[in-house]
Amino acid sequence: MYDVLIIGAGIMGASISRELSKYKLKTIILEKENDVADGTSKANSAIIHAGYDAKEGTLMAKYNAKGNEMYSKIADELDIPFKRIGSFVLAFSEEEKKHLNMLYERGLKNGVPQMEILNFEEIKKIEPNISDSVVAGLYAKTAGIIGPWEATIGMIENAMDNGVELVLNSEVIAIEKKDNFYKVKDSKGNTYESKIIINCAGVYTDKVHNFVYPCEYKIIPRRGQYFVMDKNEGKKVNTVIFQCPNKLGKGVLVTPTVHGNLLLGPDSQDILDKEDKATTTEQLEFIKERATKSVKNISLREVIRTFAGLRAESDTEDFVIKNTNNFIDVAGIKSPGLSAAPAIAEDVSKMIVEILENPLKKEDFNPFRKKQIRFMELSNENKKEIIKKDSSYGRIICRCENITEGEIIDSIHRNIGATTVDGVKRRCRPGMGRCQGGFCGPRIQEILAKELNKPLESIVLDGENSYILTGETKK
Ligand SMILES: Cc1cc2nc3c(=O)[nH]c(=O)nc-3n(C[C@H](O)[C@H](O)[C@H](O)COP(=O)(O)OP(=O)(O)OC[C@H]3O[C@@H](n4cnc5c(N)ncnc54)[C@H](O)[C@@H]3O)c2cc1C
Predict the structure, then answer these.
(1) What would the DSSP string read from start to end of 275-327?
(2) Pick the CATH number of 375-458 from 3.40.50, 1.10.10, 1.10.760, 3.30.70
(3) Model pTM score
(4) Digit-coded pLDDT (tens) for 398-450
(5) Which residues have CB under 6 Å of ligand 1?
């Protein structure tokens, strides 16, 4: 019998499991995909928002600024790439300037520190490429950028180091309420019993809720598309540049990423299919037009990738965090969910501590994760030392991002090690560069096959059926 069973290994399942791993509890995460961070937590803007957007009184407002504050310590403990670079919301007219004032006032009510409204000249000193038609901007110094999948992987890795169990390829397909526990059935035919269920299934939270109780909310997937630009463009802006938000969200942004690329997007489109992550010419054109309204001199020839993510938009228009007979929904976690996750996790953990009547804290909880070697960031002296100990760090596999074989092997043999080509990419970045894995992809497949002792053709790109090779051609 488990104390807590978490459904879904996105940033919510990750941060809650890490919080719970501080207690003497038997906790398990079931994830339907073959890796963690494979839902919305891998496809978003990667911004740790300051917290002025959400209407005061909402759960989004309650958790955003608090989560933002918590990330410095978490990133430090878990070796997650995170930079507090600040953000601007731009106004292009006197009318929009009124909106900035409203956001500023809202930010104060939401507890956001270090905000100010700057005029065009002042913005230009920080952002030389800002559009000449900008009138003013709300500057929030606490906003940051993060590696969203690194955050999710880091949190789960640390939760597992502290005793949490994880089962991949385990889609929850039925939940039965018993007297004082739940019986959960997964797609592998396994059953699990748990006193508490936490539903962190992203866009599927309403479906999962319906397995056991009629669901009072509905999740509508709201798709957002992006361009990733090559690192040549990464220095076009120094901060996160938003436009004034509208009914559908925070609008199109221009931002550097933690790894030095430039990101443009997202748009906002309600769709019917919870798996539809397609990008479309029409919407990508819209993003180009909006992004170049904010920032001059973006070279649109430098696009290296497009992608889309699905916001879990609840018809309640807020996060849904609710306990029904020890079945806890953490649903409708749209933006700013990534930013808010640690603060939500802290509160959900308090709910569980109360339900389980004060379980003991672990005295030996280890908040730190084993650091990753990022070879190219080391001094020449350190590089030599590492190669002396392990020559695989002397072989560059990804020439765009300069990733060594040693880093790839390490990503395969960690707790929740990579088993797919994209899994390696999300952990240590080979294939993230200009050639998008065109050159290093086959080498990574070979390394995976060797390290996992599996046939080459069984190594997939990402999801379970995303095979790359079907068999030998010349037998
Ligand atoms: C376009 C876009 C931009 C965004 N930008 C930002 C931003 O800049 N800053 C920010 O703070 N937030 C942002 N967000 C929001 C943020 O990405 C989400 O709030 C967050 O990732 C949600 O995490 P989650 O764990 O709830 O969901 P997910 O990451 O989707 O995780 C849910 C998991 O549950 C699994 N699952 C589903 N059903 C089952 C089942 N039956 N059994 C087992 N497992 C199951 C899924 O496979 C998935 O892995 C953005 C979102 C989008 C789409």
Answers:
(1) T-----HHHHHHHHHHHHHHBS---GGGEEEEEEEEEEEETTSS-EEEEETTE
(2) 1.10.10
(3) 0.97
(4) 999 999 999 999 999 998 999 999 999 999 999 999 999 999 999 999 999 99
(5) 7-13, 30-33, 38-41, 44-47, 49, 171-172, 200-202, 204, 208, 224, 266, 309-311, 333-339
